[in-house]
Amino acid sequence: MPPPPPRAPGHRHPPRGGEPRPEPPALGREEPRTLVRAAIAYFTHHYGEPIQIAGLASELGVSEGCLALCFDHCHGRTPWQALQQLRLNRLYEAISRQPGDPLERLVSHCGLLPVTEANRAFQQAFGIDLGSFRRTSHRAAEDRRFRRSHPDPADLVLRP
After folding, report:
1. How large is the angle between the packed helices 115-126 and 79-97, nearest 10 degrees?
2. Which DSSP helix (H) or strand (E) runs through 96?
3. Which DSSP letter does residue 60 get?
4. 87 lies in the same domain as 132
5. What's the angle, vertex CA 31, arms to CA 27 and CA 36, rounded to 5?
6. How far is CA 111 from CA 21, 37, 89, 142, in A?
7. Read out DSSP for 62-92?
8. Does residue 88 form part of some domain?
9. In this predicted structure, what is the pLDDT of residue 20?
10. What is the pLDDT, as a whole number, of residue 87?
């Protein structure tokens, strides 16, 4: 098997399309990771609020394009995609913990309005729509409550 072709200077791992991914401009080796970690920390604390990626980049002292390049370099996705995935994960957790709460409130709390768009994104990310996931989570919560109130395994067996 022939050796892989040499990489051009300033390029690292090739993305899915096969073209080399450029290094983030004018940043040291660890700075892209540091910027991405700072952005993710901000997302984690403010995911339920409206977030402007350009404003965040400015707060971090870089351009929006530079922040996007850092995310692409470190995670292979955009800052917006990372924020949306975090919001969807939080929505998944919220529905799992509180399946009886109104979906509109949970979706809003996670910064994902409108509900129709949140439902489409949720189904794309997890393979199940919000309503079905909520019903499944509700049944699982009922099952957990039942099992806590009937700790003896014999109580769970149906007798003829």
Report:
1. 90
2. helix 79-97
3. T
4. yes
5. 120
6. 31, 20, 12, 28
7. S-HHHHHHHHHHHHSS-HHHHHHHHHHHHHH
8. yes
9. 53
10. 98
| Cα–Cα distance, 76 to 80 (Å, whole number) | 12
Collapsed DSSP state (helix, strand, coil) of residue 11:
strand
Are 70 and 124 found together in one domain? no
- How many structural domains comprise the chain? 2
**Residue 22 bridge partners (DSSP):** 11
Around 111, how many Cα atoms within 13 Å sit in the side-chain half-sphere?
A: 19
Looking at 17-78, list the stretches that DSSP marks H as alpha helix, in order from N- to C-terminal side.
Answer: 31-46, 53-59, 64-75
Phi-psi region of 45 (alpha: psi -120 to 50; beta: other; left: phi over 0): alpha
CA separation for the pair 67, 58 (Å, rounded): 9
Same domain for 86 and 50: no
pLDDT in tens, the chain (160 residues): 444 433 333 434 444 455 554 544 455 556 889 999 999 999 999 999 999 999 999 999 999 999 999 999 999 999 999 999 999 999 999 999 999 999 999 999 999 989 999 999 999 999 999 999 999 999 999 988 888 888 777 776 777 7
